[in-house]
Amino acid sequence: MAAVHHSTLRLASVLRSYGRRTASTIGSSISSSISVEPYIVQPAFTVNIPSGNVAAYVLQSAHKWPDKVAVECSVSGRQYTYSQLVDHIARFGSVLRRMGLGQGDIVAINMLNCPEYPIVLFGILSIGAVATVVNSQYTHEEVMRQMKDSQAKVIVADSATFEVVNKALDMLDKPLLPTILNFPSSCSTPSGHPNLQQLLEDQSVPFTDIVEVNDKDVCFMPYSSGTTGSPKGVAISHKAFISNLVAFMHPAFYSRKETTASYQDTYMCYLPFFHVYGLLPLISAGLSQGIKLLTVPRFDPTTFVANIVKHKVRSLHTVPSVLNFLIQSSEVTPTTMATVEVAICGAAPVHESAVKRFTEKIDKKIQFQEAYGMTEVLVSHMTPLGSDRIGSTGKNLPNVEVKVLDVETNDLLGPNQIGEICIKSPSMMNGYFNNIMATKDTITEDGWVRTGDVGYFDEEEYFSVVDRTKELIKVKALQVSPSELENILLQHPKVAEVGVVGMPDERLGEAPRAYVVASGPATEAEIADFLAAQVAPHKRLAGGVVFVKEMPKNATGKILRRHLKAMSV
After folding, report:
1. C-alpha dihedral over 240, 241, 243, 248, to 10 degrees?
2. Pick the CATH number of 472-569 from 3.40.50.720, 3.30.1300.10, 3.40.190.10, 3.30.300.30
3. Which residues pair with 404 in a beta bridge?
4. Residue 188, class by beta-carbon neighbours within 10 Å (0-12 exposed, 13-18 middle, 19+ buried)?
């Protein structure tokens, strides 16, 4: 019974932090859930999965909207119609063939979001080659490691990344094919490198047809740290990617308004294209539906709201940090948000209070959805349309099976029991590129991906992610969830952003410490006392409160807790 008591206390705190149940009902709901038999959560829907090349699948309806803008730069206004997009993809595929590239060869992309990104991406896929997308914030050493590990034969860069790419290539042992640079067609490129925009306009370069591929042939190879360790190439097949696109766009989850002669939705594409969110929900889903992709090289708070208004954005893709910006921005009003009907949030859980503040500010009810996934399985969960549940990651997408395992015993768990989330899906990766050991550590013998995320599902089979297994704080052998404490602290009126990590402590083992970006004058004691009144003693901020000017984040806005730990060393 002691083990049940401890899990009850932990879950009670988690549920309270998400605002999911009142304190008076938690005890009874946990007690009743103990008698529920553990089980694997099955999807509510299954869908047939077509085979073929991802490029062909995404572009199959492009002929319906030949004169509609497919992609446009938010800064320069440079744009391509759907007709031009298809032609440029076919021409870039031919460029790669002339360079001697073909099926199975790997091409790297290191560019900021731009109109040419999907052209390069699908041009690579059209000839059966593999696109390894590179984080545009990487240092030259990080770029070099990915180029070396992926065995890429050529890289496409732009003016923002060229210097870093050049340094990276100088460090490689073997020479590569010339770097293709995305420069204006009127400009010359450094050292005579091929100019991408000139190549796309070169009428002497013939179009090439999209090649057929096998189901297991790899199309994308983004890099991920997985549950642990250094970044590894995630080999995603054409079949896996198409299966996820079909599941993501299921009518129970995906809100669409048909592109017609008089109407076209716009996706604000400031989330990086090198991330799975950029590759699938933005580029691939968007282009398959005739939506205009407005490419934003870097998030710019001075133009963000103006672009929503100018381009009449209906479906707003966001992350918690940007949602927080919208809540605080004086430019966000019912008038400026008049066209927004749907908001989809990924990268990290959203607190119910944040969504409430946003909807109250724009004075309208919108469909707010949260999504969850990881590079190794793509998108696995999403809030169903019509649901008003906030703070969960939603339900299984079609064809996705999920189970929760005890983090210590690996026993299968039932509703409201916290453990590691494991996923089986046709969208899962083939494995890590040239890394059998890491693949075996992540994919079990019976085909389940261990996500490294700690969470649970409730009686309605909505999932909630509590934390990463490797980020849980151990206080006197008791597990403390950083996310739980962060969600509580974010309710303090003077806390704009917060990250909690465990610091080494001789007496406690680890002591929770909060790094806070304050929205107004605040004291350490004020913040610590606010939390202490709402949690058990072992969850209090024994490691202190540290005020910082900004929070270290990755490209999708997720707080990098490991960087917070490094700040104290």
Report:
1. 140
2. 3.30.300.30
3. 421
4. exposed
Q: If pLDDT is split at 50, 70 and 90, which confidence band does 114 have?
A: very high
- pLDDT at 467 exceeding the cut of 60: yes
- The pLDDT tens digits for 229-258 are 678 999 999 999 999 999 999 999 999 999
Instruction: For residue 143, report the phi and psi dihedrals to the nearest 5 degrees.
Output: -65, -45
Are the beta carbons of 155 and 132 closer than 8 angstroms? no
CA distance 208 to 87: 9
Tokens of 43: 């999807």
Cα(198)–Cα(187) distance, rounded to whole angstroms?
9
Q: Is the pLDDT of residue 6 over 90?
A: no
Q: Is the pLDDT of residue 4 over 50?
A: no
For the purposes of burial, counting CB atoms within 10 Å of the CB of 166, is it exposed (0-12), middle (13-18) or buried (19 or more)?
middle
Distances (CA, A) of 23 to 13, 15, 26, 374, 458: 9, 9, 5, 32, 16
pLDDT of residue 339: 97
The full length of the chain comes to 569
AA identity, residue 512? P
Give yes or no for residue 548 having a pLDDT over 60: yes
- φ/ψ (deg, to 5) at 306: -60, -35
CB 265, CB 257: distance < 8 Å: yes
- Identify the weakest region by mean pLDDT among 25-34, 189-198, 366-375, 557-566: 25-34
Phi/psi of residue 485, each to 5°? -65, -40
CATH of 81-238, one of 3.40.50.980, 2.60.40.10, 3.30.70.1790, 1.20.120.430: 3.40.50.980
User: Do 82 and 66 form a contact (C-beta atoms < 8 A)?
Assistant: yes
